[in-house]
């Protein structure tokens, strides 16, 4: 057991290193071809993401939603589902939170309204995931297609709300809704750029996810069904039901991330409210080899890249799309390395 | 396997060493004045953002010690998860003493950032926080009186159209875009009725909004398609109100197909270059002089939370050092139209022609400017609807 764990840790480290090497050698070539200094570029990214407490706080601000989504995805990956609909679940959470805040702004008691909006976001995200789950278990629709379809629907709904019923008075713009009053922002400490409540919540969710997956019936069921649905059915587990539970847990946490984007980051609803954190989280979890323990550092690395890459256009006048090249090649490298790892696994 | 691990270690070491060795910004001397510029689109968009970028270069040239740091594509579609206060933190940590935000879309973010950094000066372009009193003392606003530029654009469109149908490619609907579309219409109507002596009801002026300042695939309407629809349905001049050059690009393509159509781009003095043979001219902003004024105010401690709405220099509206807005006639403009334009500009400058004189009505028939009166600055700034005679939506449905 101890040895198996050691090998697994080693394989994750090797995979991460290989992905980085592949992605960064590719981007280094791109940077060199564009005639810019790659060392300086990477230096700026590092300094721009962990160079000061302020930067770290900014990275943590991105880390929170990534961790929330990734924890949720652990349940669905464990049970063998590819919950690509996580993006739409984030959006639905953001919509639900906004709905509660809009309604609650008139009612008063900010703390109550904020808590209610978090609950609504989890509920809505969960239900949106449940829809994909039911399509899978009852309709026989592959969860990837169901999830992607529902993502499109979610984008449609958010665009309609922003341009229609929730527009700013006299204005028709995709900029977003009217910002919320300050008492409806997630409380933070003066001078901080990250809400300590959000940080605490993300850590809490991490611990809770670990505990649930390791020690509870939910975790046991997810793992058993993920490994062998037929055997687990014979053992008296109902894969259908547990899949719906896993989907709802994932959707709930994604919804929470959506609420965080509204309450703590943008303070209003915008079309790009999810910031692609759902898709990014899928990569985080894949790169973490579906192990919770690797999620915090990998999410931190991805968040640091997001935050630090803004230094490139700012300091080197590198065409701003180069930041996207780094992220894009990381995505590709992840896929390549995963394929390579799986083939090795099968071979051994 | 071993090789890959070595590779990974290498890259990590290189990244870390690079960070340590990188000298960072050269330390600012007393003379240096670093200012930041947040651009909503690409710095080379041949439109709104490029005009600002060149304004920043002008400041570097004119103010000794001034140094610009800019970030472009500052919008949630291009940079997911990035917020204005976050970028302002970055710019301030690089030593920026004044920060210019060039988009209406940044209004809330820049106000939040200005509160977080009371010792840094902020300029929000096109906003009115300093006018409405919603912003803190370190936040000023600047805008050009593009109404004049748009009147000229409308004027040449009205002179040139052969079908009597002018299309306006609008961004999103707000007070700014309404007053600019309305100014274009007033210029077109003036040319149509006063110069060409055509009946007013034979002029069609349609505004189609795409939903944002530029194309965001899947979110906004596609400006290329909107422009094509205009040209395909008998509109032979399209006036652009968006940050980018789609209208002119499409007009250039249609010309190659043999259609007699024209377009008028917007924002940037060099915009006609994209398709010169279809370009009737471009109303543009010249941000340099206004920026210099604000940077010098901040540098010398004479800062005020002022709201600047800067007009053209009527003696020479294309003077780089004095005029905040201008109009460059395009290669496609006929000589006759060019002469008429010169006369029109002279009349605007002398005050002989005021297109914001009543009676003017909103689309729903209510009065915008009473007969015998002229609209004040705030009347124009806060225009509530499109004007009677224009087709298209005045606000969200």
UniProtKB/TrEMBL annotation, chain A:
Q: Which Gene Ontology terms of cellular component type are present? A: plasma membrane
Which sequence ranges are marked TM in the entry? 12-33, 62-83, 90-107, 113-132, 144-163, 194-213, 242-263, 269-290, 297-316, 322-341
Q: Which UniProt keywords apply?
A: Cell membrane, Membrane, Transmembrane, Transmembrane helix
Cell location: Cell membrane
Q: What is its main location?
A: membrane
Q: Give GO MF terms, alphabetically.
A: transmembrane transporter activity
Regarding the membrane, this protein is recorded as: Multi-pass membrane protein
Looking at the keywords, is Cell membrane present?
Answer: yes
Is Transmembrane helix one of the keywords UniProt gives this record? yes
Put simply, this protein is called: Nucleoside ABC transporter membrane protein
Recorded source organism is Desulfacinum hydrothermale DSM 13146
UniProtKB/TrEMBL annotation, chain B:
Instruction: Give all residue intervals belonging to the ABC transporter substrate-binding protein PnrA-like domain.
Output: 36-311
Which InterPro entries does this entry report, sorted A to Z?
Answer: ABC-Purine-Binding (IPR052910), PnrA-like (IPR003760)
Keyword Signal among record annotations? yes
Q: Name one Pfam family in it.
A: Bmp
For this UniProt record, the keywords arranged alphabetically read as follows: Signal
Q: Which GO terms describe its cellular component?
A: plasma membrane
Q: What is this protein called?
A: Nucleoside-binding protein
Species this chain originates from: Desulfacinum hydrothermale DSM 13146
């Amino acid at each position: 057991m101890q040895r198996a764990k050691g090998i697994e840790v080693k394989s994750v480290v090797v995979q991460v290193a290989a992905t980085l090497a592949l992605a960064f050698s590719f981007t280094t070539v791109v940077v060199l071809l564009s005639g810019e200094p790659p060392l300086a570029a990477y230096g700026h990214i590092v300094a721009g993401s962990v160079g000061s407490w302020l930067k770290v706080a900014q990275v943590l601000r991105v880390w929170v939603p990534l961790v929330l989504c990734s924890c949720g995805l652990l349940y669905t990956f464990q049970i063998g589902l590819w919950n690509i609909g996580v993006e739409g679940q984030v959006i639905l959470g953001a919509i639900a939170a906004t709905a509660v805040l809009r309604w609650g702004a008139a009612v008063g008691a900010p703390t109550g309204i904020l808590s209610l909006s978090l609950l609504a976001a989890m509920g809505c995200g969960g239900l949106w995931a449940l829809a994909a789950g039911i399509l899978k278990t009852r309709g026989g629709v592959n969860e990837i297609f169901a999830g992607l379809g529902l993502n499109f629907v979610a984008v449609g709904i958010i665009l309609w709300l922003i341009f229609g019923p929730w527009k700013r008075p006299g204005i028709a713009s995709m900029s977003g809704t009217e910002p919320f009053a300050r008492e409806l922002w997630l409380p933070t400490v003066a001078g901080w750029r990250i809400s300590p409540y959000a940080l605490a919540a993300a850590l809490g969710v991490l611990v809770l996810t670990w505990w649930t997956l390791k020690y509870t019936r939910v975790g046991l069921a997810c793992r058993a069904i993920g490994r062998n649905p037929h055997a687990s059915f014979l053992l008296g587990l109902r894969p259908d039901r547990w899949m719906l539970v896993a989907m709802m847990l994932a959707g709930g946490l994604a919804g929470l991330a959506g609420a965080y984007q509204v309450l703590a980051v943008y303070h209003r609803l915008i079309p790009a409210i999810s910031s692609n954190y759902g898709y990014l989280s899928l990569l985080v979890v894949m790169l973490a080899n579906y192990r919770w323990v690797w999620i915090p550092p990998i999410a931190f690395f991805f968040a640091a890249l997001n935050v630090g890459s803004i230094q490139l256009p700012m300091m080197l006048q590198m065409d701003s799309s180069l930041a996207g090249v780094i992220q894009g090649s990381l995505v590709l490298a992840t896929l390549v390395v995963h394929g390579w790892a799986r083939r090795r696994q099968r071979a051994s | 396997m071993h090789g890959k691990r070595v590779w990974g270690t290498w890259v990590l070491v290189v990244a870390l060493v690079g960070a340590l060795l990188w000298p960072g910004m050269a330390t600012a001397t007393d003379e240096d004045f670093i200012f930041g510029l947040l651009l909503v689109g690409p710095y080379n968009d041949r439109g709104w953002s490029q005009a600002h970028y060149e304004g920043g270069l002008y400041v570097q040239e004119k103010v000794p010690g001034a140094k610009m740091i800019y970030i472009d594509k500052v919008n949630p579609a291009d940079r997911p998860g990035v917020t204005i206060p976050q970028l302002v933190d970055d710019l301030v940590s690089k030593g920026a003493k004044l920060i210019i935000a060039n988009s209406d879309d940044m209004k809330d973010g820049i106000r939040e950032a200005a509160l977080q950094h009371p010792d840094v000066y902020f300029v929000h372009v096109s906003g009115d926080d300093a006018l409405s009193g919603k912003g803190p003392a370190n936040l000023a606003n600047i805008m050009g009186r593009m109404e004049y530029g748009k009147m000229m654009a409308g004027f040449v469109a009205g002179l040139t159209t052969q079908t009597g149908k002018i299309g306006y490619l609008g961004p999103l609907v707000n007070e700014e875009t309404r007053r600019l579309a309305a100014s274009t219409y007033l210029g077109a109507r003036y040319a149509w009725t006063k110069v060409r002596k055509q009946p007013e009801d034979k002029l069609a002026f349609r505004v189609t909004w795409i939903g944002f300042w530029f194309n965001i695939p899947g979110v906004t309407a596609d400006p290329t398609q909107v422009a094509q629809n205009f040209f395909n349905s008998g509109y032979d001049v399209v006036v652009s109100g968006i940050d980018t050059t789609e209208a002119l690009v499409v007009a250039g393509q249609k010309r190659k197909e043999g259609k007699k159509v024209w377009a008028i781009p917007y924002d940037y003095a060099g915009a006609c270059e994209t398709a010169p043979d279809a370009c009737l001219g471009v109303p543009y902003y010249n941000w340099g002089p206004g920026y210099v004024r604000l940077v010098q105010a901040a540098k010398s401690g004479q800062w005020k939370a002022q709201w600047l709405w800067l007009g053209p220099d009527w003696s020479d509206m294309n003077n780089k050092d004095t005029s905040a807005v201008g109009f460059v006639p395009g290669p496609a403009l006929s000589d006759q139209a060019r002469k008429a334009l010169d006369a029109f500009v002279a009349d605007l400058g002398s005050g002989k022609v005021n297109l914001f004189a009543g009676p003017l009505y909103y689309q729903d028939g209510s009065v915008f400017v009473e007969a015998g009166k002229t609209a004040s600055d705030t009347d124009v700034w806060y225009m509530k609807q499109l004007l009677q005679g224009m087709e298209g939506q005045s606000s969200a449905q």
